[in-house]
Amino acid sequence: MAVHSSILREVLHQTDALKAGDLRKHRRLPLSLAGRFMRADRSEYTCELRNISVGGAAIITPHVPEVGERVVVYLEHIGGLEGTVARATPDGFAFSFKVTEHKREKLAAQIMWLINKDEFPDEVGRLHERVGTRGRRTTLRLEEGVIIDVELLDVSASGASIGTPARPPIGSLVIAGKTRAIVRRHHGHGIGLQFLSLLTPEALRERFP
To answer: 3-class SS at 67?
Structure first.
């Protein structure tokens, strides 16, 4: 199931809801991922993700922690999320987590990518026409804060192809030029990026002069 632009905007706008403290604005998106969780007594159990937002998640497991208990949930492709159990559910529990602004943006990008990834294998799934820009240079800021000089191979309203020997992990958050993006794939010349928001032609000219 591909995420349409309205749902994509909602995932990203959840960051504003989290800042305002209004958890009711966090619509959970269904997403199934394998994982494990650790209870406060450090015992560990297998689990499965049912749904997730930038503010919390629902977990499927027969081992249900106490409401208010601190847990750490490790999910495939996402990593560790620490939070507090909000309530028990018929097949597990729901928990809320606190994240930094950087982690919140990364999580929104990861959710978007994980829901969409089966619709975009390798070269397939380019939603907008790419404009060739081979020979033009830009910068790429990695999660570690390292900034490298790269080649802008092509660009569109929704993403770009970057020429670089660097291979940041698929699903990681980067900044290409002045635009936040998520690494969607690796290719022979570098990496393919998906922007976190669609860019107008004017914004493309401004961010990738």
So the answer is: coil
Q: What is the pTM of this model?
A: 0.57
CA dist., res. 35 & res. 75, Å (int): 4
* Helix ranges (DSSP H) in the chain: 5-20, 101-116, 201-207
Closest CA to 55 of 14, 111, 85, 1: 14
For tokens 């999320």, the residue is: 81
Tens of pLDDT, residues 94-125 = 999 877 777 777 788 778 777 766 544 444 33
Chain-centroid distance, C-alpha 45: 25
Helices first, then strands: H and E counts in the chain: 3, 12
User: In the numeric block, which tokens belong to residue 41?
Assistant: 């007594």
Query: What is the rounded distance in angstroms from the CA atom of residue 161 to the CA atom of residue 79?
Result: 26
